[in-house]
Amino acid sequence: MNSAPIPTSAPVAPPAGPAPATGPVHTATLAIEGMSCASCANFVERALSRTPGVQSAQVNLATEKATVSFSPALTSRPQLKAAVEAAGYHVAEPAATSAAGHGAAATLATDEDELAARKARGYQQLRQRFWLTASLAAVIMALSMLMLWPAFRTRVPEALLNYVLLALTVPVLLVGGREFYVSAWNGLRHRTASMDTLIAVGTGAAFAFSLVATLGPGLLRQHGIAPVVYYDTTATIIALILLGKVLEARAKQQTSAALRALLGLQVKTARVVRPDGREQDVPVAELQVGDLVAVRPGEKVPTDGELLEGHSTLDESMLTGESLPVAKQPGDPVFGATLNKTGAFRFRVTQVGAGTVLAQIVQLVQDAQGSRAPIQRLADKISGVFVPVVILLAIATFVLWFDLAPAATRLPLALTGFVAVLIIACPCALGLATPTAIMVGTGKGAEHGILIRNAEALEKAYQVDTVVLDKTGTLTLGQFALTDLQPLPGYSEATVLPLLAALERHSEHPLAAAVVRYADGQPAPLPSLAATDFAAVEGLGARATVQGQAVLLGNERLLREAGIELPPAARQAAADLLAQAKTVLYAAVAGQPAAVLGLADELRPTSAQAVRELQALGLDVVMLTGDNPQTAAAVAQALGIKRFVAEVLPQDKATQVQQLQAQGRVVAMVGDGINDAPALALADVGLALGSGTDVAVAAAPITLLRADVRGVASALALSRQTMRTIRQNLFFAFVYNVVGIPVAAGLLYPFTGWQLSPMLAAGAMALSSVSVLTNSLRLRGFALKQ
Amino acid sequence: MDISQLLVTLGGLGLLAFVAWFFFWAPHRVGAATLTTDGVQQVDIQVKGGYSPDVIELRRGQPVQLRFHRAEDSSCSEELLIPDFQVRRTLPAYQTTTVELRPQHAGQFEFTCGMHMLRGSLLVK
Q: pLDDT-derived band of residue A67, with 50, 70 and 90 as boundaries?
């Protein structure tokens, strides 16, 4: 990456007005109508700048928008509008008023809607032109066929029929073919040539010859040339190319369907709770950070924020691909565009516009779709010279046929070869091969919470043979679980666990939570006991009275300070647990040691399956862990991992990746985006395991929004499938042209007497780019494991 | 070889030479950005069968506004790609679309239409 795009919301103009800056500054975007030149824009800009309270105003003539920073205490949007209208211009409503940097996503959606509407109109017109052209071509074709019928030929003079065909072909050229001729002419003025040039020259040559044969057949006969007309060829070529365009336009729409779906997730209005308790619907673009917003069951969350009151479960699948609803309580983050399922709640807005997770995902997908895959370079180089080279080949074809064929057939053969070469050549298939597959592939990923940063990441992921997984936080939940409860003589799990659960329910410590989860997870419900006199002893543990007995749970010092001596059995049990890198807690009841507890970071329930899926893809899985070798071996065995590296310090993860690369492996590193950043950056492909919130934080080439290692296999499988599609497309596009052009030039004629009709060439050409697009669209059906 | 064959051969060779020169060796139109008062490099580019100017000289480190005016509805030019800046933009017909970027490094960066037929380059110094 050579540079960074400027955020489109960045204020470009310096403060233009001398207005005092008191209080907050708001930025409004006004859509100005009626500006026709740069001086109009300057005039509007000056009018806005002079308005009291305006700090800066910038008018962009191209986008017809004014961006105004103003102090809401001194002026307001209606006053700004009035200033523009006083200057003789008009402000189109509605437009977004917002805090600085806000509204980008909303604007994006509006622009996208407008573009979609334009495209839809263009598509309709294209279809109409196709149907008109196709109907005329059908008539022309039928009349030309009749000429082959002797009974008809004797009754109707050929010259008359040629004039009729000419009259029918001219509208085809003017309506159906105009676009090609105009575009070819414009291109020639810039010394560039495109597919339109080929079609224009090809059909133009066929038509020009036919015109001469119609208007002055005698002239041709004088030179021993039969005055044959090619009106059917001309019309059919144009009809078929238009058919190709219609199909192509329809397929192209679908390649960006995923992005449109993401944009469509944006919510239009939010219910803001005013300080007096009144609820008011406002456009999302007008939301401010700090606003209190109410959400009812069944409604979408309008923007990102932090839940303040109430609780609910939210469907976040549209962002993360996680199909299970997520429980939310006060303090939890909520994200715009997610669906509130059960409860009503209120949340405080923390992000608006471009800062929201959805807007970041949209931006990321857009960036990825604009990136270029290294595999495309060759195709790009070829497309750059393709059309001129095809024109050269067509001229050479004409000359060779004219020189080598018998005098009677040389001109028809030369002309047919010339036109067929121009028409069959399809630079579009080459140009569409890579980008369409990338668009569909990255879009498909985004639908499943797999964000692919650029096409290069896709290509690298395709080559990966080794996947390095960090244990903590990746294979494990990064959350403690009670794994061992060893009652000491005189106690059993059944007697001691209810006591400990009663005590720990009062504690907020993560280890206490693990004990409570373990107790709650028992198959038979435990007796619910009440704890009194609870006290947390900082750094040591906690104590309380349960059923009249003093219960203690904490480290060795807690018991020692309470004057409780640990028996040898407890020391031995603790030593064993410590050897497994577990955290050890001791429990005492009524002054007697009662149990030894071992806690460990819990494996994700899906980790073992994820490892199997990766291995099924033929990938070598390596686990990195800070644990001692015995623990690491036990974990690796539980997960089915054959290779692991134990006692790895966090800072040494990157070195491990380098060592694997030195062995010639292409390494994918999976970790959390923040702690493992160096290793992620060094790996050939870094996959950051997120939790929906850290889209921007993780600068990894691939981000998995759902904290599930199975996504790694999905991401790698999707990358492989996308690259496979690109290769198929490129192969097809190359082979099509490499085989098609010589056949069109008449390579088979000396051996088989068969020459490709330009009409067949047009059919092949129309189908070639559609085939490439259809192949890319097949990616949409690629099944990603959930 | 009869006279018409000779004429076609000579004409064909001449045409081959002309086409090759016309597309590969003819000079490009170079345009430099105009600097606005607030330090933004602005360039107006007409999109009509190609880009004019098609070579654009820019200074690095300063924000750039490329204003593409698409003065045609031929579908060839409807998409604009500037891969080095990860830009893929649809250019609506008969409208101006502004692309903003900030080149940080010197070099030549290509921009093309969606199918790489029409091309131009940003020459960052």
A: confident
Asked if B26's CB is within 8 angstroms of A191's CB, the reply is: yes
Of A690, A684, A689, A648, nearest to A664 by C-alpha is: A684
A520 catalytically annotated: no
Say yes or no for a CB contact (<8 Å) between B118 and A192: yes
Q: Chain B interface, mutation test: which of A192, A198, A250, A459, most B Cβ atoms within 10 Å? A: A192
Residues A616 and A471 in one domain: yes
Q: What angle do CA A720, A724, A727 make, to 5 degrees?
A: 140
CATH, residue A87: 3.30.70.100
Report how far residue A332's alpha carbon sits from residue A340's, in angstroms, rounded to the nearest whole number.
14
Of the residues A291, A304, A470, A672, only one is catalytic, namely: A470
Report the residue from A5, A183, A383 with minimal CB separation from B116.
A383
A155 touches chain B (CB under 8 A): no
Q: Spell out the domain ranges in chain B.
A: 28-124
Superfamily of domain B28-124: Cupredoxins -  blue copper proteins (2.60.40.420)
> What's the burial of A296, exposed, middle or buried (CB within 10 Å: 0-12/13-18/19+)?
exposed
* pTM of the entire predicted model: 0.72
Residue A282's CATH number: 2.70.150.10
With an 8 Å Cβ cutoff, is A528 touching chain B? no
Q: How many domains does chain A have?
A: 5
- Same domain (yes/no): A651, A702: yes
Question: A193 and B23 in contact by Cβ < 8 A?
Answer: yes
Hey, which residues 454-493 in chain A have their CB within 8 Å of chain B? 454
A538 and A598 together in one domain: yes
- A473-499 pLDDT, tens digit per residue, is 788 877 788 889 999 988 999 899 999
3-state percent helix, strand, coil for chain A, nearest multiple of 5: 55, 20, 30
Closest CA to A692 of A243, A292, A336: A336
- Our CA dihedral for A370, A374, A379, A383, rounded to 10 degrees, sits at 50
Q: Does residue A384 fall inside a structural domain?
A: no
Instruction: Collect all residues of chain A within an 8 Å Cβ-Cβ radius of residue B114.
Output: 431, 435
Using CB atoms, pick whichever of A118, A367, A432 lies closest to residue B92: A118
Q: Which residues of A touch B118 (CB under 8 A)?
A: 187, 190, 192, 194
Q: What is residue A295's predicted lDDT score, i.e. its pLDDT?
A: 92
Question: Any CB–CB contact under 8 A between B61 and chain A?
Answer: no
Distance in angstroms (rounded) separating the CA atoms of residues A27 and A10: 11
Q: Which domain holds residue A48?
A: 26-94
B17 touches chain A (CB under 8 A): no
Q: Does B72 touch chain A (CB under 8 A)?
A: yes
Residue A94 has pLDDT above 70, yes or no: no
- Nearest-Å Rg of the Cα atoms of chain A is 36
DSSP single-letter state for residue A566: P
Interface of A with B in 30-59 (CB under 8 A): none
Q: Is A168 in the same domain as A45?
A: no
- The number of beta carbons lying within 10 Å of the beta carbon of residue A99 is 18
ipTM of the complex: 0.76
What residues in A contact B16, CB-CB < 8 Å? 392, 395-396
- Give CA torsion, residues A347, A349, A353, A354, to 10 deg: -110
Is A403 in CB contact (< 8 Å) with chain B?
Answer: yes
- Cis before residue B53, ω within 30 degrees of 0? yes
Interface membership of B111 toward A (CB under 8 Å):
no
3-state secondary structure of A93: coil
Please state, rounded to an integer, the average pLDDT across all residues of chain A.
Answer: 84
Residue A223 φ/ψ, nearest 5 degrees: -95, 15
What pLDDT digit, counting tens, does each position of A386-433 carry? Answer: 889 999 999 999 999 999 988 888 888 899 999 999 989 888 788 888
Report CB contact under 8 Å: A2, B107. yes
